[in-house]
Amino acid sequence: MDKEKRNLIINSIAICIFIGAITYVTIRYSHRIAEILQSPDTFRTYLNSFGNTSILVFLGMQILQVVIAAIPGEVIQLAGGYIYGTFYGTLISCLGILIGAIGAFCFSRLLGYKVLKKLLSEKSFQKFEFLMNTNKYELAMFILFLIPGFPKDILTYFAGITPIDPLRFFVISLVGRFPGIFASSYIGAHIGEGSYTQVIIASIIVAVFIIFSVLYKEKIVEKLREKKHHN
User: Fold this and answer.
1) Average pLDDT score over the chain
2) CB pairs under 8 A, 24+ apart, for 107-111?
């Protein structure tokens, strides 16, 4: 068996396992996850039921929300701050997101361009395809990770098929995500403490960035696309 056929078989098996695992988790646990995330108190009660391993369960959910983009990461991060405080909530969320990003990135790099193009929707693929045609892809990725509400988990999968160095990507993605993770954890922590003045101030700041993102997100992405024509 030649190398090309062997790689095709390995990729096909990997795809089947990946799709099967996501389908199973989605069908089996999506309803339960939605119930748990209804409120921070419900989430805390659920985590406390695991005793000393509660942090590992929370970490696992953060990893899962990167791999399965449909799970709302911001809600989990806010709940993390509510339960563990700003510092530890941010720290655990960053660790979980980093582990999830490593898994998604490496899996995508294993599959390659042609296979990932078949897995992602055409709209999602077209949104990021310009990254393949610019030597400023690192800067572009960092900016995209900074934008609130941008599909960062899908971007992580796409990054795996770009020439970017894995270590550099993990640093870029984590630094780019950090402001959002910290803000969510901070707001969650102060909700838990009943410090509503801080919650209001932080929420206003976050709302300004979200509004800016909604108004200018497409323009920012278009500017990044235009850069490829000048490189």
Assistant:
1) 79
2) 107/14, 107/18, 107/157, 107/160, 108/156, 108/157, 108/158, 108/159, 108/160, 108/161, 109/160, 109/161, 109/166, 110/11, 110/14, 110/160, 111/11, 111/14, 111/15, 111/160, 111/161
Q: What is the pLDDT of residues 42-69, one digit of tens each?
A: 888 888 888 888 889 889 888 888 877 6
Range of the domain at 112: 3-230
Dist. CA 3–CA 218, nearest whole Å: 42
Question: Token digits for 231?
Answer: 């490189």
Contacts of 90 by beta carbon, 8 Å cutoff, 6+ apart: 80, 81, 178, 181, 182, 185, 186
Is residue 135 helix, strand or coil? coil
Q: Is the dihedral of CA 155, 161, 167, 168 positive or negative?
A: negative
CB distance 145 to 152 below 8 Å:
yes
Amino acid at residue number 87 = F
User: What is the rounded distance in angstroms from the CA atom of residue 68 to the CA atom of residue 137?
Assistant: 24
Determine the angle formed by the axes of helices 166-193 and 196-227, rounding to 10 degrees: 160
Query: Is residue 161 classed as helix, strand or coil in its secondary structure?
Result: coil
Burial 139-176 (b: 16+ CB within 10 A, else e): ebbebbbbbbebebbbbbbbbbbbebeeeebbebbbeb
Tracing tokens 């939605």 back to the chain, one arrives at: 34
For the chain, how many structural domains are there in total?
Answer: 1
The residues, any chain, with a CB within 8 Å of residue 145's CB and separated by 6 or more, are 152, 155, 172, 173, 175, 176, 177
**pTM above 0.85?**
no
